TrEMBL record:
Pathway: Cofactor biosynthesis; coenzyme A biosynthesis; CoA from (R)-pantothenate: step 3/5; Cofactor biosynthesis; coenzyme A biosynthesis; CoA from (R)-pantothenate: step 2/5. Its cofactor is FMN; Mg(2+). Binds 1 FMN per subunit. It comes from the Bacteria. Its EC number is 4.1.1.36, 6.3.2.5. Catalyzes two steps in the biosynthesis of coenzyme A. In the first step cysteine is conjugated to 4'-phosphopantothenate to form 4-phosphopantothenoylcysteine, in the latter compound is decarboxylated to form 4'-phosphopantotheine. One of its GO terms (molecular function) is phosphopantothenoylcysteine decarboxylase activity. The lineage of its organism: Bacteria, Pseudomonadati, Pseudomonadota, Betaproteobacteria, Neisseriales. Residues 6-211 form the DNA/pantothenate metabolism flavoprotein C-terminal domain. The chain holds residues 180 to 398 of 408 of the full protein. The keyword Flavoprotein applies. CTP binds at D99, K109, P125, D126, I127, L128, F143, K157, K161. Keywords: Decarboxylase, Flavoprotein, FMN, Ligase, Lyase, Magnesium, Metal-binding, Multifunctional enzyme. The gene is coaBC. This is Coenzyme A biosynthesis bifunctional protein CoaBC. It catalyses: (R)-4'-phosphopantothenate + L-cysteine + CTP = N-[(R)-4-phosphopantothenoyl]-L-cysteine + CMP + diphosphate + H(+); N-[(R)-4-phosphopantothenoyl]-L-cysteine + H(+) = (R)-4'-phosphopantetheine + CO2.
Length: 219
């Protein structure tokens, strides 16, 4: 039993949605509440880590002792991550980052008329993939929310981004709820967690990360 499995480590976590602005009031976003990422920040802090939490637009209080950086868009989130990723030991991507942003952004509120409004979307940078492909990456943990073929799609994401660990969850039960039922995927296989509140899930995930990191050969 290791009460502080991440003692002395620096952990960076992304949480919540991103908001991709179209005009002064409108934008593209999703239903992530930030609860899973904020629970992980608490769990990592309680496990002894120094935590940086990079949060999209959510209405949650900052966990005590956690450094929080608020961002709006995926590009803002990437910049905030890059600001101190080189000193992190662990990176956990919990954020539901928008995959696209409007190519053109309007400063003022667009006026409506009877015509079809076309909004061209350009792809956003993949923050987790960027971090995982650094020359000296931190221990990277991904999340995947899927509405079907959960384990296949999640394992594909883990392999594509070359992640040692990924937490898979169902869109229908994970987004904006107080509980979750994560399945952890690593090179050893699948590790389903029993359904519970998000903080309990987060504590189990943090324990798993601690075990995997201790098993790594010294560099
Ligand atoms: O916030 P809650 O309401 O508590 O909900 C939690 C959650 C459902 C959002 C969370 O548990 C979760 O599953 N987050 C990942 C959502 C997802 O499906 O992400 P993705 O498949 O688009 O991305 C896979 C991984 O790459 C994620 O770790 C994501 O943070 C990261 N990613 C994705 C795209 C991108 N441009 N940059 C990224 O870093």
């Amino acid at each position: 039993f290791q009460p502080k499995p991440l003692r002395g480590m620096k952990v960076m976590i992304t949480a919540g949605p991103t908001f991709e602005r179209i005009d002064a009031v409108r934008g593209i976003t999703n239903q992530s509440s930030g609860k899973m990422g904020f629970s992980l920040a608490r769990a990592a802090r309680d496990a002894g880590a120094e935590v940086t939490l990079i949060a999209g637009p959510v209405s949650l209080p900052t966990p005590y002792g956690v450094k929080r950086i608020d961002v709006e868009s995926a590009n803002d989130m990437l910049n905030a991550v890059n600001g101190s990723i080189s000193v992190q030991d662990v990176f956990i991507g919990v954020a539901a980052v928008a995959d696209y942003h409007p190519l053109q952004q309007f400063e003022h509120k667009l006026k409506k008329d009877a015509n079809i409004l076309q909004v061209d979307l350009a792809p956003n940078p993949d923050i987790l993939a960027n971090v995982a492909s650094l020359p000296r990456p931190p221990f990277c943990v991904g999340f995947a929310a899927e509405s079907q073929n959960l384990l296949d799609f999640a394992e594909q994401k883990r392999r594509k981004k070359r992640l040692p660990l990924l937490a898979a969850n169902l869109v229908q039960t994970a987004f904006n709820s107080d509980s979750n039922e994560l399945i952890l995927l690593d090179d050893k296989g699948r590790h389903p967690l029993p359904k519970s509140d998000k903080l309990s899930q987060a504590r189990l995930l943090v324990q798993h990360i601690g075990k995997m990191m201790r098993a790594e050969p010294p560099t």
